[in-house]
Amino acid sequence: MSEWPLPVDPEALGVYVHVPFCRRRCDYCAFATYVDRDHLMADYVGALRRELAAALDAGRLQPARAVYVGGGTPSRLAAEELASVLAAIPRQPGAEVSVECNPEDVTPARLAVYRQAGVTRVSLGAQAVAPHVLASLGRHHRFEEVVAAAEALREAGLASWNLDLIFGAAAETDRDWVRALEAALELEPPHVSAYALTVEPGTPLAADPTRHPDDDVQARRYRVADAILSAAGYRWEEISNWAMPGHHCLYNNITWWGGDYLGFGAAAHSHRGRARWWNVRRPERYIALVGAGAPVVAGSETLTEAQRAFETLSLSLRTPRGVPAAALPPSEELAGLVEWADGRAVLTVAGRLLASDVSLRVQIPGSGAPVR
Amino acid sequence: MTSAAPPGPVATERIRNFSIISHVDHGKSTLSDRILELTGAVDPRLMREQFLDSMDLERERGITIKAQNVRVRYRDYVLHLIDTPGHVDFGYEVSRSLAACEGAVLLVDASQGIQAQTLANCYQAMEHNLEIVAVLNKIDLPAADPERCAAEIEQVLGIPREEVLRISAKTGEGVEALLDAVVARIPPPVGDPEAALRALIFDSAYDQYRGVVSSVRVVDGTIRAGERLLFMQAGGVYEAEELGVRTPEARPVEALGPGEVGYLIAGIKDVGSARSGETVTSAQRPATEALPGYRDPKPMVFCGLYPMDGDRLPELRDALDRLKLNDASFTYEPESSHALGFGFRCGFLGLLHMEIVRERLEREFDLSLVATAPSVAYRVWLTDGTALDIDNPTDLPDQSRIERIEEPMLAATILTPAEHTGTVMELCQRRRGELQKMEYLSPERVELAYRIPLAEVVVDFFDQLKSRTKGYASLDYEPAGYEAANLVRVEILINHVPVDAFSTIVHRSQAEAYGRRMAERLRQMIPRQLFDVPIQAAIGGRIIARETVKAKRKDVLAKCYGGDVTRKRKLLERQKEGKKRMKSIGRVEVPQEAFISALRMDEG
Q: Alpha-carbon torsion B47, B52, B56, B58, what sign?
C-alpha cells in the first residue's frame, strides 16, 4: 500500500497521447474530437509514431513513469494500432499505462492485446446508469455494457481500472444519482472519477439553458458522492477523483503536483518546467505537418516564477496534500472551507466545492519558499 | 438702409424691447426665424432653423437654455427681441430677461391652448408691467381652434379676444401684422440719459476666446466702450473691452444709450462674476442704487456624479470647472462614496438642469457618469436649537440629535384637460400634495394649484403627469418655503455595513417601499459570496426590509488535466484581477457595476 497522499516525485515524467476520434459526440463535450474522420485513423497513428520517434531522437523524450492515452475515444483505434503507438514510448520499468475506453469497446480480445502492449490501467466511460440519464447526456450505450466491460476487466487481471461518472444531468434526480453510485460500486472499480456536468461554450448543451445544471444541486450531489465513496473505503484523490488504497492514477498525480508531462497528437498539451506548449488542434493538419517534418506546436507560453508558483499551489490545493499553511493562513472567511494541520492547509468537502474561490486567496510565498 | 448699427445711441421713442413667451413646441424659434428673415437681418441663403439656439443640445431638444438677444430694424424702429429660456428650472433667468423688456409677445399654439408655464411667465410679465401682445400660432394646422384658445386667453388673462392676433410662423402669415402690433402697442423704454449709468445684465455666456459675454440692457445713462465699470452686486471693476449689438452677428458699437440692448465684453473669466440680475454702473460716477430684483438662485436638486471609470476623476473635475464658467447656477464640491469612489456632489436648479449638465458633461467631455438618486436640501433642526441644511442623506446627524426635519415645498400650478383632472389629483395626493385651488379656465381645461414637497416632484413626477394626461398637462412651480414632515433616513446595509450611495431621506410612509425595492435589487446584483449576505433596509436601528444573498455552494472546475490546467490558471488569474476592482463592503466583495446597475434602475 502506498503512502497517502502520494509523495511528490518531481523527476517523474508523464507522457500523454491524444486520440481525437469518437463514434458519437456527447453533447456536453468540448474536447478536440471528431466523429467523421475515422478514415484518418491509420495516418494519424503513423503520425503519432513519427512525432514520438522524432522527440526521442532529439533527446526530448525520456523514459516515462506514466503514460496516459486519452481522447476522444482511444478504443476507437484497433488494438494493434494502439499497441504500436505505445511501443514507440520509452518507459521506465513498472510504468503505469492508462487507456480511456468506451464500455462497448472493452472485449477480452482487446484487453489481451492491451496487456501485451503494457497497459496497466483502463478508464471506463460509464457516465451514468439510468437509461433516461444516459439519454439526457447524449450517451448511446446501456449500463449493461458497462457491467460486461467491468467483468472483462476483472477477468483480464489489469492492475487497476477507473469508472467515470457524471452528475447533474437535467433528467437526473438525487435518487438517480445515489442509485448510480450504488450500481457503480457493485462493480468494485478500484478508482472512481465523478464529474459535475459542466457547460462548455460552443456545445449543444451550452445552447440549451433549460438543461444547465444548478450549482446548489451539484453541490448536494457532490457531497452525496463523497459520503458514499468514503464509506465504501475510497479515498479522496483530487476534487473529482477517489481511489481505493494503492489505486491512484500516477499520471494524473504528476499533473496535479505540477510535474512534467509531454503531450503527443492533435491538441495535446505539454508542461515542462515553466514552459507550456500545445499542438495544432485539427487531426488533418497534425498529420500533414508531421508528414512534412514540420513542427506541430500551435502555441506556447513561458510562465513567470510567480505564475508557476500560483499554478502549482492551486493544483495542489485540489488534492489531499493541500498547500503549505503559510500560503493559505487561517482566516475567518476560510473557516469551514480549509483545515490546517501539520503545517498544511487542506480543503474540507465544502472547501473542495469552492476550490476556485479558495485558490484566489492563496498567497504566493517569497522566492525559495516551498510551494508543494 | 439695412445697417442695424447706427453710430450713436438710438432715440428711445424708436426702440421696442420685447420677449416671446411661449411653451416648448409652440413655435417660438420658428417665429424668431421669420422675424429675422422679414427684417432682412439674416441673409435667406444663410438661414438655418432655430437660428438663435446656439447649443447643439438646444436645437436637439427644441428648448432654449441660454437667453439670446437680437437687434433688428423694422420700418423706422429698432426692435430688440430678447429670447427667454424655455423651462421652469430657469425661471429666474426668465424674470431677468423680462426685466429687460417693456412688452412680451404671448405665443400660443392654436391647437393646444395656453400651458401652465407660459401662463406663469405671462403672469410674471404682467407683474413687471409688460404690455402683452397675445398671438395664436399654427393657424394653418387643421387641428387649430383659434376661437376656443382666444376665449381661453380672455378668460385667464383678461386680454380681449378681438385683440388676439393670428399667425402662422411657419408660412409667415400674419407676422408683419404682429410686428406692427409690437410697434404700436408696446411702449418705448423710459430712461434718463443724464443719470448715472445703470445697465442690467440679463444673461452671461462664456466664450473660450473672449471670456464672458454678457447681454445688457441700459436703463439710465450711457455705457461706452473703454469705460471702467463697476459690477454692483459682485463688486468687481472691469473695463468695457467691447460693446456691441447682435444683428444677429455681433457688431461692435461705441456706446449704448437708455433703452438699448446689446452685449458687453469686459475681460471677465467666469459667468459667476457677471450673473443675471447684476447691475453695471460707471466706476467713475457710480449710481447710488442698484436695479431691483437681483437674486442668487439656489440649487434645488442635488446628486452625486461619479466617473464610471475612477481613473477619470481629474477629467471630470476639469469638465465641471469649465462648465461652471458658463453656468453660474450649478454647484459642485468633491465627495467620496465608499461604493462609488471619488466624485462630486452637485447642485442644480431643477431636474432638467441636472439632466442638461450631465448630458453636456458626457457629450462635450466624453465622460461616462454615474449619478446617485436626486435629493433635495432638507433643513434639519437639532435639539440644541440650531439648524443644518443637508443635501446629502449621508450627512444627516444621529436621530437622537434631531428635533425635526423640514423639507422644501413648491407652489405648483398644473393645467390639464378637464377629463384628466381626477388622475392628476390622484397623483398629486399620492405625492403628498395639498390642493390650494381648482379653477376651470374653460369647460375643457382646469387649473390646479398644489402645495407639494419638492422631493416628490424630483422623482419622475413630470413623466407621470405627462403619461397620465396623454402629454397634455403642463406644470409650473416655484419654491414655497420649508415645512416639517415625518421624514426618515433609510439606510441600506450589506452584511450589516451601511452603503452610503443608497442612503436616502424619504417620507415615513414611503420608507418601506424604498427599502424593499433596493434590498431586492441589490440581492439580484450582488454575486454570491462564501457566506450568506443579509441585505437590510433600516431606519435608525430598526430593520424594515431584508433579503439574503445565499452563500455560494459551488465554484470549482470539475476537470483539471492537460490543457485544463492552463485554462484554469488563466481563469483564476482573470478572477484575481477582477477581485482587485471589487469594492469591499466589510467582508463582502461587490463589483462596482452592481452598485451602478442598482442606481441606474432608479433612473429608468
A: negative
